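Changelog note: in this version the structure field was regenerated for every chain. One regenerated record is shown below for reference.
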Amino acid sequence: MLHKLNSAATLIQRTTTEAPRDHMYYIGLDVHKRTISYCVKDAAGHVHQEGKIGSTRCELDAWIKTLPQPRMMAMEATIFTGWIYDHLLPHAEKIKVAHPLMLRAIAAAKKKNDKIDAAKIADCQRMQLVMCTRKARSDQPGAS
């Protein structure tokens, strides 16, 4: 990221641990026992990918290789979130897990399905509306 100082031609470079927000990809995950619906959006809200994958480590590994970088992910807290969080954590700048009631945009929606829920979670992450619950734990049921 480059910034001009006082309209002079002098430029400084700033290094951060996170990529600039306008270059970040935001991924919403709607997690279920056997499947995960996902939606990948850029900072402007344009959809880059969406679909459904199986809730297995093998399918997550294959899927993560297809995603643009850098990326931030968000998902609702469910009984299956813990092991998915732990598995995806090395592959994202940040992963947020939100209590379902905190994602009011989804809870209040008249039209609900997994695809729409994943897109709304991506939007909440993109607009920094996801409030984190405590860190998910991999010893939760469904971690096998």
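Spot check on this record: Helices lie at 57-64, 81-88, 104-107, 114-126. Confidence is low (pLDDT under 50) at residues 1-19, 140-144.
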